[in-house]
Design goal:
Helix content is about 40%, strand content about 15%. The protein is α+β, with helices and mostly antiparallel strands. It has a four-stranded mixed sheet with strand order 1-2-4-3. The relative contact order is 0.11.
Length: about 150
């Protein structure tokens, strides 16, 4: 085995040159940073505009989701906070097995629902949970799960 205990002298100038370039780039970044009233948090928030920093989750107690599908589709078109949410969670949906999934579709969202079962709870009315997740988020999650498995 021919292992050298030190760095060869022909690589030393290359290493020193790249280290100098790195220091120069980092120094430029520090100098380019905005200072004073143009560098604050409020300015960055204004630059971001309507885009939120975190994925949005909309939670609501709807009490009979089947009656409110027209209102939900209108909110998707008119309300930016609602339309840019990644997850819509509705409680007290009052859904049952007689209401098909196609009647509850929202464009761009996948539907997951958990209806109240009379045999399990002893109650026939009320309850239920419904999640709408953005289809882009679903595709990303399924790709990540497939890569893990």
């Amino acid at each position: 085995m021919n292992i050298r205990p030190t760095v060869p002298m022909d690589l030393l100038p290359v290493f020193l040159a790249s280290a100098a370039d790195l220091v120069h780039v980092l120094a430029k970044k520090v100098w380019a940073r905005k200072r004073g009233k143009r560098g604050g948090l409020l300015v960055r928030l204004r630059r971001r505009g309507a885009r939120t920093a975190l994925p949005g989750i909309f939670l609501s107690n709807v009490r009979s989701l089947g009656n409110k599908m027209d209102e939900l589709s209108l909110l998707m078109r008119r309300n930016k906070d609602f339309a840019t949410s990644c997850v819509l969670c509705f409680t007290e949906t009052w859904l049952n097995e007689r209401i098909p999934d196609c009647a509850l579709e929202l464009q761009g969202f996948g539907l997951f629902r958990a209806d109240r079962h009379c045999a399990l709870s002893g109650k026939s009315r009320g309850g239920g949970l419904c999640f709408y997740t953005e289809t882009k988020a679903l595709e990303t999650c399924s790709e990540e799960l497939q890569s893990v498995v």
